[in-house]
Amino acid sequence: MSENIKIKPDKRNLLEYIEDFQLGKIQVPAFQRDFVWDNNKKLELFDSIQKGYPIGSILLWRPDFKSDEDFYKFESKEIGFYKIPERATNDYFYILDGYQRLSLLFGCLVNPEKTKLQRDDINWFKEFNIVYNLQGDGAFEMNKKKDFSHLEYYQIPIYKLIDAKEFFSFQKQLSLFDFDESVNNDLLEKYENISQIFQKYELPSINIFGGSITEAIDIFQRLNTAGVKMSSDWAISALSFNKDENFRLASEIDNLLEDLEIYNFKNQKREVILQCITNSFGGVYFDQFSKNDNKKIEVLARRSDFIEITRKTVKSIIIAVKFLYEDLLVLDSKLLPYNSQLIFITDFFNKIENPTDSQLRILKEWFWITTYSNYFTIYNLTKQRLAYNKFQDFIEGKSDSPIYYDSLGEKFDTLEFPDKVTMGSVRAKALASFMLNYSLRESNILDGLSINAENIEGYRTFKLFSDIENSNVSENTILVVEKFNSLDNIPRQTKNLSHWLNLEYKGQFQEYFINDEMRKEYKKGNIEKVLQIRKGLIIESEKFFVEGIGLVYNTQ
How far apart are CA 119 and CA 113, in angstroms? Predict the structure, then answer.
């Protein structure tokens, strides 16, 4: 790092940020992704400010004006749908990290009645038209009116909250209403309290002075290592930004996550997507950003083939998620046992564009074995590298099996049957995925036909009995694929499926581990026996499947 670079932590109130923005002291580099926050996330940020919670640090960079001129030639033209003013001469910072937060703050807190900045009114009203409702305990809400001229007296545009003079305007406005003095005082007190919070709220920043964008990225990596919470993909976006190719990595990831919404993978962590991409350049994904080599990210982003390989990998990620969804019934990103599985499967489709049915079957078997065996946690990093290399040998046709065993003739054990089906346990996710697959394919899980994503929307979780003690146990849980078979006949308000045990359904719902013996016990009122039988059915079927793929089933 250059000796001329300085790092200075800072903390300023929101109004100071607003004033600097209007003076051209805060600029936006072109590699920054578009504003993508939904309304819930917007309101949550202001709710955090109201409660005095921290909303993270901002990373700002003032470049060495004698270098990297090509970088700061290309700047975004707006933020928060306000046109960014011309740069203040040698007195400005670029937003490196924190762009989404500052977009929201500038968009909502710049006073349109007092600023000289131009604004895109149509998009502004769509995204940043937020008010504070003084009624009740007070709450931030999206203004559903087309403008602010039709607001109720208790709805305050939040840009007025950081301007002390607006309190007196509100006080004068209230005098026009024939309210009781107690009502007036209550509204004034609430307004003053929330206004004081906004005027005093401080947002920390880390300011980097001097150097090039590469050196700023290096500092970012060190700050992340030191525990400063910041986003990760902007760094590669900065180094790989290409105006001619219209390429911004962060935006590519945004668009990918939108495409994955049909598979309920829109909330997949961006870091995992980034690992899928970096893994495509060779080497094991968890070695890409070694603490001992902070320059790897720079070398990667500067490669001439970075854009080409990244875009190809993005397409492979979509194919991989589609495979998880349609062939393995991983119907939500929360159901994915290990993020590493997505990385490996992406690599498979990245390198094998037209896999055979045999290769796909082996890949499905690999998924189930790695899921049930805790494959990605039982090995240390050295052996995980060996497991990765074994998978590469399979892809390249050097091995018939993608599974790495530490010793000849070894068999993996499963963990014991889970007490509950929760998304915080890999073993529970394995059971949930098995139950979903069994409901559609029964014993033909590996060779069953793919399910078209257009025919399903995900899954719903029911209880066989919702009004019993310990209703969350695994044997009382029923997972049903949405928009498929019997689910179409289940009303949305239904919480339990005990009616499936009625004698009128004799012989039905065996795919959900329900049989006529359970119906006989149910008729006697023996709920405990019903659940005991169902647990036995699930274990028997799961054991048959697991042993069929070479695992040792643990029933303890």
Answer: 11
